[in-house]
Design goal:
single chain; alpha/beta; 5-stranded parallel beta sheet; 7 helices; 5 strands; globular
């Protein structure tokens, strides 16, 4: 649903529903990251539990440690000051929590993620049993498409169920 007009957004709602029903990965890009984020937020079904991560401004990129710690916070596992010191322990808590949830992860500003953060998220997603995978929706600017074209992210890119471009 287009937030400003209330009209369907290029079939985005149906594509999101398909992605969520199979616990797949989806990429939504727009002319700007905020346009993609607004389109996804407007099209998501409010009945489903959603974990939203809004990744930073254009001044910085999000590396793996920051991503994992922010993810833990968004999942309600405590702020950085209450999280374990070892990043591996935090990552294990995140993966355990994801295995218990039936939520959709929406990563707004995915074009701000560094390759290592994308690799970690993909690795965590792919290790889950197919029936237990949560849907992950990446939103961002067109730069996200260029990031996905890196050879090291070929597996992630090949597993993205739907690539959607917001045109309005």
């Amino acid at each position: 649903m287009n937030v400003s007009t209330g009209l369907p957004q290029d079939g985005l709602g149906e594509r999101l529903a398909d992605t969520i029903s199979v616990g797949a990965l989806m990429s939504v890009t727009g002319t700007t990251a905020s346009a993609a984020a607004a389109a996804v937020d407007g099209a998501l079904d409010a009945e489903r539990p959603i974990v939203r991560m809004r990744l930073g401004a254009a001044e910085f990129s999000v590396a793996r440690p920051e991503f994992i710690r922010q993810f833990a916070t968004e999942l309600g596992l405590g702020g950085r000051e209450t999280q374990p010191r070892r990043l591996a322990d935090v990552a294990n808590q995140v993966e355990d929590e994801l295995a218990r949830r039936e939520a959709v992860l929406v990563v707004h500003g995915a074009d701000r993620m560094l390759t290592e953060a994308l690799e970690w998220l993909y690795s965590s997603w792919s290790r889950a049993a197919p029936a237990a995978r949560l849907a992950v929706v990446f939103t961002g600017a067109p730069a996200f498409d260029r990031i996905l074209n890196q050879p090291v992210l070929a597996s992630l890119k090949s597993c993205i169920f739907i690539h959607h471009r917001v045109t309005a």
